[in-house]
Structure formats: C-alpha cells, structure tokens
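Bench notes, afternoon.
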Amino acid sequence: MRRIPFVIALALGAICAAPAAAQPVAEGSSSDVVAGYDGYDEEDYGDEEFCGGEESSYDDANFAFQEGDYEDARDILVTALRDEDLYGGRAYYLVLLGQAQLRLNETRHATVNFRRAIAADTEGTYSMGARVGLAVAHLRNGQRRRAQDEATTYSDEHCAPGERATLSCYVSFVVAATTAREDEARAKSQEGARRIRSEMDQYQLPALAYYDATFDVSAWLETPAEG
C-alpha cells in the first residue's frame, strides 16, 4: 500500500501485535526461532513479545478494537494523546481515535479529530484514512453534501481501476453512492464499491462487515445498479 489506510493499518497491527504463540509457524520450523534468531526464549525477554518490543498504547488500543470494546480503545487513545505516549505519531492516534468515536456514535468529536489528524499529518502518511473517516462523520452528522464532496474527491484521486484495493476506497465509494444526487453518479460509485469489494473479500476484515451493516449496502453490491 502506498500509505496504510486506517482500518487496514489496524489489521496489520493486529498481526504484528499478536503474541508469539499465536503467530503462524512455517512447516518444519521451530516456534523458538523469531526473525531468524535461533534460541529465542520468551522468559529472557519478559514483556517483550510484541514484535520485539514492549507492549505499547497502540497495542492496547488495537486489542480493544479487536474485542469490540471501542470505549476502552477511545480511553486508551485519549490518554496516550494527553501523555504524548505515541507509537507512530500524533496523526495516527487521532485517526484511530476518530474511528473509535465513529463506532460509539460520537460523530462530532470524530469530525474534530479527523480534521486534527489531517492538520497534524505534515507528511501525508495518514491523511488519506482521515479524509475517508471525515466523509463518514459528515454523513453521520447529516452533512450529505460535505460527505459527498469528500468521498468523491478521495475516490477520484486514489481509487481508479488498476489501483491497489483498500478499505478506504471501499468506504469512499459507499459514502459517495449513499449521498449521490444523480443516478449516473450513484451507479458509478456502486460499481466502484463492487470492484473493490470483490478484490478485498480475501482479507475477511471485520471492518468490511461493519461498514456493510452501517450503510446497508449488501443489496446493491449484489444487484446491478440501475441508471
């Protein structure tokens, strides 16, 4: 991925943060071999079982997301931001916080934090995910025109056929289809969502089901769009 979108970043983080015992082990290899080092012993490293380092606030928030405990994730992220205990930068934590707040229906707070993430992301690493989150927050706040503009701009710039399929593109197409004012624009966004979804089904990300349920898109993903 050119830049890791917000929920895929969570999925990748979940893989990275899983305890060593949960990691897949190649056939014929020893579970004691970690990153090419023979003779690894967990007892020698104490808590250092998360990708070679101590458990971070990111790990804690990520596990809370996996468990569906979005209040806990929100509280962990707020504390980390206040204490500047940031693994990956302030913008990244703001994006994750906005995601937790969306799931808790704290959409106005999510809007503020997505905007803060965009402002804090001077290198443009996480602003793509923040912009899609902002589109969702606008829609939840009843600001359909803003949601449409944000989602359409994102999908036009980053989600053309041939580009790598990302959850951010899927969500931007769904929001654009949901808020489209013309049949042609709606059909175009529906087709984009179908294309991305067909490429992403292999990932089986829980977030796919979350957004499908949120926007009730299953019917038009399976039925050819009209218009």
